[in-house]
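[Discussion] Sanity-checking designs against the backbone

I'm trying to build intuition for which residues belong where. Below is a structure token string of 447 positions. I'd appreciate it if someone posts a full sequence so I can compare it with mine line by line.
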């Protein structure tokens, strides 16, 4: 175990205007699945598929954040963060994903945003963190249907008119690779489709919807900064063999370049288009330019590196490496490598680390929750961010995933990422050691 750095020393590695935050998403914490006119999402339905969620969990109650908004806002404020990243549940504000809006749903997000501002915390919103209105899935195959992209842009415009004057930053999507690949190719996330052609068409429509939404929000005169959040990982070959190098190059293309090339170079990578063959998406004239229009920021979610070989093109750990409770390799160096590679290969807008954190089994000691491994994980990754900044990468902020333990998708409630512990029997929140440390870091004087 490495020594703990004095918090003031770590804090001094960052500029005084660096944004410090914690992140969550709607489906993972809100609960209130049928409250106040909310429509069902694809995740509400997917959780009902036998065997889809490891512990049989659903989002019906989750952390009950919807009913505990005020005390959760106090909890966030108590941490001393300057920003809070949350997502808006589309079917809560527009139950069918088309047609009528739900004032009670919009009202919840107005109270959330106003409550943050009253406490001096900047709201960072994400419009889509995977909870598509179920109706859109049934009507047009969800993101497989081009129409969903237009529906999304309309929803984005409504949100920008209602909340855009008070939100500091809006990301259109969280991790479109996950929506497309885990949802439509591997079928392990909602909507549970297993078809590569459908998945790549869905990925194109997700990116298209980003472009359409940015255009619509700018036309509505939004003041907030606009961008997108991508999950990324440096991909390395498992061995020195040419075959493994080939697999690593392809995996990097599917995971990273498919998104960054489309968004920041205006075209999909030709090697991946060729590799997909008949599964490559249908693209209409003008789509590429729409997708690649300028953004104010890009969010990067980093957890682990990817190791590629012919037998496993996308392993989250090399053999023998230290891993988290998800089986993901702990490799802070992967984050600085990734940031430097992006600086080398792209002209990106300012970067925020919009998610980083770890699942571990917490130890209970005399009523305290000891999670030294999580604390160390966060500290070491912050040092990696500081190193990248020192080497010229424009990183403006860092958000811990996650504020509190929550619904970890196909894993259900078994994996805990929070710096705040949630007792799912009582819904009581308790700061873990990592949370106390993060608070001390944020409250330490910045020289
Ligand atoms: O919990 C998720 C989050 O919803 C998206 N990024 C990765 C996290 C950990 O798996």
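Best answer:
Here's mine. Compare freely.
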């Amino acid at each position: 175990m490495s020594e703990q750095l004095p918090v003031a020393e770590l804090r001094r590695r960052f500029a005084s205007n660096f944004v410090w935050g914690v992140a969550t998403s709607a489906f993972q914490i809100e609960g209130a699945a049928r409250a106040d006119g909310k429509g069902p999402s694809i995740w509400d339905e997917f959780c009902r598929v036998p065997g889809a969620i490891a512990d049989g969990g659903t989002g019906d109650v989750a952390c009950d954040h919807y009913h505990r908004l005020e005390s959760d806002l106090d909890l966030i404020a108590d941490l001393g963060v300057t920003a809070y990243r949350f997502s808006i549940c589309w079917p809560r504000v527009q139950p069918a994903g088309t047609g009528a809006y739900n004032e009670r749903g919009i009202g919840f997000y107005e109270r959330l945003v106003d409550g943050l501002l009253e406490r001096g915390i900047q709201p960072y919103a994400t419009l889509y963190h995977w909870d598509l209105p179920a109706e859109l899935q049934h009507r047009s195959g969800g993101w497989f249907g081009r129409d969903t992209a237009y529906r999304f842009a309309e929803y984005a415009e409504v949100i920008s008119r209602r909340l855009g004057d008070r939100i500091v930053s809006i990301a259109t999507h969280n991790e479109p690779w996950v929506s497309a690949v885990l949802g439509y190719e591997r079928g392990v996330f909602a909507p549970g489709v297993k078809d590569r052609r459908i998945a790549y068409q869905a990925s194109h429509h997700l990116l298209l919807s980003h472009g359409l939404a940015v255009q619509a929000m700018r036309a509505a005169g939004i003041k907030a900064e606009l961008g997108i959040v991508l999950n990324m990982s440096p991909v390395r070959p498992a061995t020195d063999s040419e075959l493994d190098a080939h697999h690593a190059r392809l995996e990097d293309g599917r995971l990273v370049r498919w998104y960054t090339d489309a968004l920041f170079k205006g075209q999909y990578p030709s090697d991946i288009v060729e590799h997909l063959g008949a599964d490559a998406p249908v693209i209409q004239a003008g789509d590429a330019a729409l997708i690649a229009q300028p953004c104010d920021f890009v969010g990067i979610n980093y957890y682990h590196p990817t190791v590629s070989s012919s037998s496993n093109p996308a392993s989250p750990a090399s053999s023998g490496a230290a891993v988290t409770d998800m089986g993901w390799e702990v490799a802070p160096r992967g984050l600085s490598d990734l940031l430097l590679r992006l600086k080398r290969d792209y002209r990106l807008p300012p970067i925020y680390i919009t998610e980083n954190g770890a699942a571990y089994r917490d130890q209970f000691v005399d009523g305290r929750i000891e999670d030294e491994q999580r604390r160390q994980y966060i500290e070491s990754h912050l040092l990696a961010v500081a190193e990248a900044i020192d080497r010229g990468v424009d990183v403006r902020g860092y958000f811990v995933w996650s504020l509190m333990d929550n619904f970890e998708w196909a894993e259900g409630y078994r994996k805990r990422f929070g710096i705040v512990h949630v007792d799912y029997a009582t819904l009581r929140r308790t700061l873990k050691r990592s949370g106390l440390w993060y608070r001390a870091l944020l409250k330490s004087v910045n020289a």
